[in-house]
# Entry
Amino acid sequence: MARFMFTWELGQGLGHLVRYLPLVRALVGRGDEVWFLVKDAQQAAKVFAGLSINIEQIKPGSTPPERQLTTLNSYPEILHNFGFYAADELEKQVAAWIARFNKIRPDVLIIDHSPTAMLANRVSKIPSIATGTGFTVPPLRAPMRPLRYWQLREPAELLRSERKVLDISNAVLRRFDGRALDTLSDLISCDAAWLLSFPELDHYGIRDGAKYYGNFPVQEHGRAPRWKDHDGPKVFAYLTASRVPGEFASAIRDMSANLLLFAPNLVPGEEERFVASRTERSRFPLDLELVARQCDAAVTNGGLNTVSAFFRGGTPQLVLADNLECYMVGKRLEITGAGLLNFASSERALSLKLRAVLTDRSISRNASRFAIKYQSANSHTQLADMLADIAALAVSLS
# Structure
């Protein structure tokens, strides 16, 4: 029996948990011991309900608002805003992780967007796997690549940010006699890496020689879709904002579209922007693979899990990006020709872009092309690859 520890420190959304459900089932089923050290223990308990695992809450690293950078353009700058801003404060976070490692004594760490855990493991030296999307597992390069690669920014500025975080990290490692980082990308260099994405949707672009494990929804976390029975295109919208973009509501009405809406944060009254007889609102997450087979277009905020489901399903998409990470996904999608990108904060051109994803044959052809390319990829092949990596890691360390 082996003891596995999953970690989740930064980022939002249940994707940091749900994506590991098949793997956790397999590990528990064969008698392994599983631990989760996560920023939201309550959500983890819901996701893994019924499974015999151990869950503990951790406190993510943080930086006081007055010390935070306002416009982030690199992974090092993200680290700066989440605790990597001062050696004394970062030392406390690292000490807390080391104490957990010493208490639980895992055989393998599976690290999802947990940079402080990675830094602590430079001291604890536990076999580890870096896992997550292209955004949370950036390319191992020195200097690290900018996030806003489509903009020109003074390289010296990014280098200064990276050097500062590197110096602070190494100062903390010296206090614990840990292995120093030659470059900051060494922080995320583990014994193995799981890039849970498709090459075309990698936030940074396709990486030479990288293995992509795909991104697949877990069906039992979604209900079957229901639609209003009217003529007209079927549009699915998964929106996380509290209000509906006015031009989007107008475009849905103008195109006589049947809308299936999942908007868990919508404030009362916003739903009335849509034609009631053509709108079906779900209060629960939906089976996205089923939705993809039924709808003519999907509108999302650009979360990789959701975009990937429709990418594999061959569904034209419109991304209303509301943060940098989602913008990067939307931009990659637009480059493939299988969808379009629009700012959620800017309604200009939204109506034209929605019409395009519904009617432009080049977009639908490109979407179909990628569905054919990845038709044999699924969560079963992903799980087999993960288990094979774990077995190989165990052999190399025996």
